[in-house]
What we know:
Elements: H1 2-13, E1 18-21, E2 25-27, E3 34-39, E4 42-43, E5 48-52, E6 55-56, E7 66-71, E8 75-80, H2 81-84, E9 99-100, E10 103-107, E11 110-114, E12 120-122, H3 130-135
Parallel strand pairs: 3-7
Antiparallel strand pairs: 1-2, 2-3, 4-5, 5-10, 6-9, 7-8, 10-11, 11-12
Amino acid sequence: MRSHALNQIEAVAGGTPRLIGPGQTYRVGNGPTIYLRTRDRDQRQGDHRVDWFGLRLACWEDPDAWFVLQCALDFAVVVRVEDWLPYRDQIGRTQEGNQRQPHVHREGNTTELREANGLVLDIGQWVDNWDDLGQAHR
């Protein structure tokens, strides 16, 4: 999954992503920071799956950075951090409180961020949003 996402990043950014920090933190050239996370699917009943990802609180500090949340080999959520900042405090935290854990639900053709506090956000605009990530590298 990681290599699949890295290949996609390389294709749109025009260079090889290099590891620059803890976890799966990358940069291509002088482009924005990319926080890559991968997750194998958690299949629910019927045509419903959920993927969740750990994003350290520090990941949210740079609004120009990007989250690439690779959901198995099926799709990726590719979103600029700034786009999710209005929802950050509604996204669940780990027990330790040092990470946010967005929960990506796909049911049929609908992809949503769903959190226990009631947040339901259609995130279809960020599914396989590779072109915007590529533009951020130009």
